[in-house]
Amino acid sequence: MHIPDGFINASTSLAAGVVSAGGVGVALKKASDTMEEKQAPLAGLVAAFVFAAQMLNFPVALGTSGHLLGGVLATVLVGPWAGVICIALVLFVQALFFADGGLSALGLNVLNMALIGGLGGYVVFLAIRGLLPKTRPMVVAASAIAAGVSVVLASIAFFVEYAIGGVGDVSLGAMFAAMVGVHALIGIGEAVITALTVSAVLGVRPDLVYGARDLLQPLEIRPSEPAARV
Amino acid sequence: MDRKNLLLFVVGGLVVTLGLAFFVSPLASGSPDGLERVAIDQGFADTAEEHAVGDGPLADYGVKGVEEEGLSTGLAGVIGVAVTFGVGMILFGLLRTLRARREGSASGP
Fold it and tell me: Quick one: DSSP state of residue B45?
């Protein structure tokens, strides 16, 4: 899913870069407004986890692989704004040090995977959660579905960018079908990994899952009851 | 208590993450990913340009000079996790400090 240099022309890449810079700027501001003390180390951990998980390509079809994008995973765990920053940070490290994702395409990749995959995926997560009962298993289900959808959304974003500024000569209809088809399969893997990770964190520290904080029982002070009444 | 638990959680999470990066990443599929596959099949893969840091010490998730492929990939993964976590901690710590300072000055005289 990482776009290399040379796929999409300079003006489209630049426009995406401006949008991404603005989006990440807003995310930094919003995250700074809402950042709680316990969230900072958690956000660092989530970014590191997404980096590692993105290295774990799984086979999806004959001769093709996919890997976690992590947008919904990050936004559900640490919130939409910090989550967007996590993914943008991973993409930045990958492009700068690991030659993964072109430098001129960094704006495109941030747009597709952090803003559309992360923020867009989080909106899908909220919409699905609104339809489901308010329980922890439903948080896991909503994150899984949103994760799968987010990969398809990111692949459609690439298609639109290629339709606007693609350098090669392709049949757009065939490319759209191929892009969405293969990323629907990758989305299944994204859904499984996101569900496993979110449910693992919910199991250990439910208070650390941003997307499930409405389920936390507020602490209440009750007078201790005499044992005899039990 | 809560702070100690959080530290434990982050350390535990890092151990899992480093384990994935070092031990599991060498086992990952080397096939083209979804976008690469589409680019090959639809005939636009050849417009990709050489990456600006394509000769860098960590290019393509390998540590230059480490011959054994699995070890090279695993080490690159560990370095990437460490860099991402380190930069993330600095960045998010900074955001938190900015907020604390803003709130401090807002409630100050």
Answer: G
What is the total residue count of chain B?
109
Would an 8 Å CB–CB cutoff place A74 in contact with chain B? no
pLDDT tens, residue by residue, A10-31: 999 999 999 999 999 999 999 9
Q: Domain range spanning residue B19?
A: 1-30+68-109
Residue B33: strand pairing partners: A65
| A 2-41 residues inside an 8 A Cβ radius of B | 2-7, 28, 31-33, 35-41
For residue A229, the distance in angstroms to the closest alpha carbon of chain B comes to 31
Side chain identity at residue A211, one-letter code: G
- Whether the CB of A112 is below 8 Å from some CB of chain B: the reply is no
A223 belongs to a structural domain: no
DSSP letter, residue A59 = E
B77: Cβ contacts below 8 Å, ≥ 6 apart: A52, A55, B20, B21, B22, B25, B61
Rounded-to-5 percentages of helix, strand, coil across chain A:
75, 5, 25
Residue A198: which CATH number? 1.10.1760.20
Question: Which residue in B has a C-alpha nearest to residue A174's C-alpha?
Answer: B42
pLDDT per position as a tens digit, A177-206: 999 999 999 999 999 999 999 999 999 999
Chain B residues close to A32, C-beta within 8 Å: 95-96, 98-99
Asked whether this complex has an ipTM greater than 0.90, the answer is: yes
Q: Read off the pTM.
A: 0.94
| Interchain contact B58–A (C-beta under 8 A) | yes
